[in-house]
Amino acid sequence: MKFDMKAFGRVAVIMGGSSAERAVSMKSGQAVLEGLIRSGVDAFALDFQGELELLIDSQPFDRAFLALHGRGGEDGTIQGVLDTLSIPYTGSGVMGSAIAMDKTRTKYLWQGMNLPTPKFSYVEELNAELLTQLVSLMGFPLAVKPSREGSSIGVYKVNSQTQLEAAVSAALEMDEQVLLEQWIEGSEYTVSLLNGEPLPVIGLKTSHTFYDYEAKYESDTTQYLLPCGLSVEEEKSLGNLSERAFSALGCSGWGRVDVMRDGKGRFWLLEVNTIPGMTNHSLVPMAAKAAGLGFDELLLEILNQTMAQSTKAIDGINNNLREQQ
């Protein structure tokens, strides 16, 4: 598909932030910036750490490509600011971003819609008696996760009460709410979504206990399986499930769904990422490449989603003007 680069206008690539994922966000943002410039887009970098004055007083821009990972970037915060300023941006809106960032509420929604997700509960304090009760319901091993962190930061696999209490204590230092999730033993997959359609599924293999931060961003031994090893029917089924899980949260545009498959062949939804990484280790560019879409083309497809937002904004302004006449 051919794009009119001038029609995009001035594009701010918003990156950085102040979350635990700042370093990854800077790498993603730089890769996005370089790719857009290669394609002839008038783009510049904007390191946003919550200062509204920076957005308002920075050089004017017509739309934003969000590469801002973690809190402040994926939780609806920057999306709400840009909505207020009537500036179109890539990815999900306020609601989808906020829900997907909250792993606990994500799972409650999936559970309510009968979408398969592992057993779970949550805690907001270190209470040994409560943890013992939850273990009796879910058993070991368990995954312990800060509800609103990304990139597997603060995630632990625990096999005993002692490990559980230590992991919950550490996770509570990162978030006031901690998710406890039944550990699924099996194969791990990730499904990237673009314009409402699943891209080729990627199978993941790592020598680590799970696909953690180091395996995602630093290790050279992580294996990315493309093709993923599933049959055509299984991959189609997983793609459909992932699209339903993504849409159920109100997400749109592009993103990624992480899934486990147990020994009986059943798929289990883990979480949704609304602004996936765009580094040289990142999964969405790999899946897009397998679908015949190069990195720079992928960026333009994502950026082009903002054009529909521009049309809606202009229509809204025109409607308001008509009402005032």
Output the keywords.
12 helices, alpha+beta, disordered C terminus, 13 strands, Dna Ligase, domain 1, 21% strand, 325 residues, four-stranded antiparallel sheet
Task: Give the count of helical stretches.
Answer: 12
N-to-C span: 40 Å
Class based on secondary structure composition and strand pairing: alpha+beta
Report strand %.
Answer: 15-25%
Give the proportion of residues in helices.
Answer: 40-55%
The named CATH superfamily of the domain at 119-182: ATP-grasp fold, A domain
Instruction: Report the principal-axis shape.
Output: globular
Indicate the CATH class of the domain at 119-182.
Alpha Beta
Q: What is the chain-wise order of helices and strands?
A: HEHEHEHHHEHEEHEEEEHEHEEHH
As a whole number of angstroms, the C-alpha radius of gyration is 20 Å
Flag low-confidence runs.
311-325
CATH topology-level fold name of the domain at 119-182: Dna Ligase, domain 1
Largest sheet: 6 strands, antiparallel
CATH architecture of the domain at 119-182: 2-Layer Sandwich
Count of beta strands:
13
State mean pLDDT (0 to 100 scale). 89
Descriptive notes:
With 325 residues, this protein is an alpha+beta fold. The protein has a domain at 119-182: ATP-grasp fold, A domain (Dna Ligase, domain 1, 2-Layer Sandwich). The protein is 42% helix and 21% strand. The protein has twelve helices and 13 strands. The chain has helices at 5-8, 22-38, 52-57, 77-84, 94-101, 103-112, 128-138, 161-172, 213-217, 232-248, 283-290, 295-324, and strands spanning 10-15, 42-47, 63-66, 120-123, 142-146, 156-158, 178-182, 186-194, 197-198, 202-205, 223-225, 254-262, 267-273. Strands 8, 9, 10, 11, 12 and 13 form a six-stranded antiparallel beta sheet that branches. It has a four-stranded antiparallel beta sheet with strand order 4-7-5-6, with helices on both faces. Strands 2-1-3 form a three-stranded parallel beta sheet. A hairpin with a 4-residue loop joins strand 12 and strand 13. The radius of gyration is 20 Å and the shape is globular. It starts with a helix and ends with a helix. Mean pLDDT is 89; it is low at 311-325.
